[in-house]
Amino acid sequence: MPLQCKLRTVKDLPGVGVIDAHGGIDPLSLEALEIVTGEAKGKGYRVVILDLGEIRYINSAGLSYLVNLSDALARRGGALLLANPQPKVRIVFDFMGVSQFFRVYKTLDAALLAVASARRKLRKHA
C-alpha cells in the first residue's frame, strides 16, 4: 500500500504539526513522507507528531529517516514525537533498538497533552 501523508495544524499549540500517515514506510514510500515533513519545516513547525495509527509496516530505511528527522528537528530546538504505534511497528522499534531514542506515546491525545504540559511548565518557570 502506498504511503499517504497529510499535515495538519494543532490550533491550540502554535508551532506543532501532526502528520497523519497511512500505509507502510519503506524506501519506495519515503518521498511522500519527505514532502509532508518539508511542508512542516516550511510552515515553521518545530514539533512534529507522527501519528502511526494507520502505519502497518516500517523497515530500517524508514527508521533511519525518522532518526534523521528527529535530529534535524532537535537542532532547531524542536522534537519528533511518535504516537499510536501499532503492535507490528512497535515490535520493529523494539527489535531495532530505537524505542528509547524516540518519545513514543500510546495515543495522539497523549502526545498532544505532553506538548501542552511541557509548554505550561516552561511558561511557569520563565
What does this structure look like?
By secondary structure, the chain is an alpha/beta fold. It has a single domain (4-125), classed as STAS domain (Transcription Regulator spoIIAA, 2-Layer Sandwich), CATH 3.30.750.24. The chain has four helices and five strands. The protein has helices at residues 30-42, 60-75, 87-96, 108-125, and strands at residues 4-9, 16-25, 47-58, 79-83, 103-105. The protein has a five-stranded mixed β-sheet with strand order 1-2-3-4-5. The chain is globular and about 45 Å long. The model has no long low-confidence stretch (mean pLDDT 92).
Secondary-structure arrangement, i.e. CATH architecture = 2-Layer Sandwich
Task: Enumerate the strands of the largest sheet in spatial order, edge to edge or round the barrel.
Answer: 1-2-3-4-5
Beta-strand share of residues: 25-35%
Report, as a whole number of angstroms, the end-to-end distance. Answer: 47 Å
Q: Output mean pLDDT.
A: 92
The shape is globular
How many helical elements?
Answer: 4
Describe the structure in brief.
This protein is of the alpha/beta class. The chain is built from four helices and five strands, in the order E-E-H-E-H-E-H-E-H.
What are the key terms here?
126 residues; alpha/beta; Transcription Regulator spoIIAA; 4 helices; 5 strands
Topology:
Layout: E1 4-9, E2 16-25, H1 30-42, E3 47-58, H2 60-75, E4 79-83, H3 87-96, E5 103-105, H4 108-125
Parallel strand pairs: 2-3, 3-4, 4-5
Antiparallel strand pairs: 1-2
